[in-house]
Design brief:
It is a single chain. By secondary structure, this protein is of the alpha/beta class. It has a domain of 231 residues: Rossmann fold, CATH 3.40.50.720. The chain contains eleven helices and 14 strands. The strands form four sheets. A seven-stranded parallel β-sheet has the order 3-2-1-4-5-6-11, with helices on both faces. A three-stranded mixed β-sheet has the order 12-9-14. Helix 1 packs across helix 8 and helix 3 packs parallel to helix 5. The model has no long low-confidence stretch (mean pLDDT 96).
């Protein structure tokens, strides 16, 4: 595979995937409306790997723009990151999430069909497991959702499965992410949340850099070792590398439908992450305990064995490196790419 269309390629995970794709000898072509990202990330990618990706600024719902991209480029496969991703926002604006995430994916698939491109790696989420009965979570666990964001991911998975069963010429990989954190080792690309962060690590680093006064920990009465929620945190560069491995398998087995968890298999609590961050940076993170958030679950961590066996995927970075790299990015870019 050579030319890879990367929808949402200017975002947090997308920009890290661009680096991995270039380093694997592939040519990423970025499609992003910049609603929750910036093209400055593409300049930062260039500073890391020497390549400024070809870039189309357009919306995933714009079928004419999608057709133009496929007409102008000999695309071999698609990595589909583009989508709205805030759980809380999805509860407040469900129709917007279904339109953008689900209808947008349908637009993309129709454009791929017209262009005769039938290989796609989809950015799914561990939210499709809902509130699991046990951990670690395997790919064959029952699926359910607790919010419209997760429901949109599950709907897209269903659409892709139905598409594959209707036409086995398609090669489809669903990657269920656990909790990506950290930043590229260079400190040149990283996560830039808008407003108060929804995710734990950027919330911690925003407190560390002085932009927020304290961290709010939602619930300390879960049935976990310290009462706070337990999650499977995975370094974003490890996650990005998983997409390259998925593409390489699609090249070898071009007419498969596969589903993989991308996680480490280890669960860490909120306070584990806070304490590790303080240990590796020497910075105090004041926090307060707030009530649980609706829809949050006690613990969620992966069984990563299928991805290890079939993709050769195994996380290389531990929790300390995730904290160190996240801080290197935040310390150097307290206002994101504006710095």
């Amino acid at each position: 595979m050579k030319n890879i269309l990367v929808t949402g390629g200017a975002g947090f995970i997308g920009s890290h995937a661009l680096v991995e794709l270039v380093e694997a000898g592939m040519n990423p072509i970025v499609y992003d409306n910049l609603s929750n990202s910036t093209d400055k990330s593409l300049k930062a990618v260039e500073s890391i790997c020497g390549v400024y990706p070809k870039f189309y600024q357009a919306d995933i719902l714009d079928e004419e723009a999608l057709d133009r991209v496929f007409a102008e480029n000999d695309i071999d496969a698609v990595i589909h990151f583009a989508g709205l991703k805030s759980v809380g926002e999805s509860v407040a604006q469900p129709v917007r999430y279904y339109e953008n995430n689900v209808a947008g994916t349908v637009c993309l698939l129709k454009a791929m069909e017209r262009a005769g491109v039938r290989k796609i790696v989809f950015s799914s989420s561990a939210t499709v497991y809902g509130s699991p009965k046990s951990c670690p979570i395997s790919e064959d666990f029952p699926l359910s959702t607790t919010n419209p964001y997760g429901a949109s991911k599950l709907m897209i998975e269903s659409i892709l499965k139905d598409l594959y069963h209707s036409d086995h010429r398609w090669g489809i990989t669903l990657l269920r992410y656990f909790n990506p954190i950290g930043a590229h080792k260079s400190g040149k690309i990283g996560e830039v949340p808008s407003g108060i962060p929804n995710n734990l690590m950027p919330y911690i680093t925003n407190v560390a850099v002085g932009q927020l006064e304290k961290l709010h920990v939602f619930g300390n009465d879960y049935p976990t070792p310290d009462g706070t929620g337990v999650r499977d945190y995975i370094h974003v560069s490890d996650l990005a590398r998983g997409h390259v491995l998925a593409l390489q398998r699609l090249e070898k087995y071009p007419e498969e439908l596969n589903i993989y968890n991308l996680g480490t298999g280890t669960g860490y609590s909120v306070l584990d992450l806070v304490n590790t961050f303080m240990e590796v940076t020497g910075i105090d993170i004041p926090y307060v305990i707030d009530p649980r958030r609706p829809g949050d679950i006690a613990e969620c961590y992966a069984n990563p064995e299928k991805a290890k066996k079939e993709l050769g995927f195994e996380a290389q970075f531990g929790i300390k490196e995730m904290c160190e790299d996240a801080w290197r990015w935040q310390e150097g870019h307290p206002h994101g790419y504006e710095d």
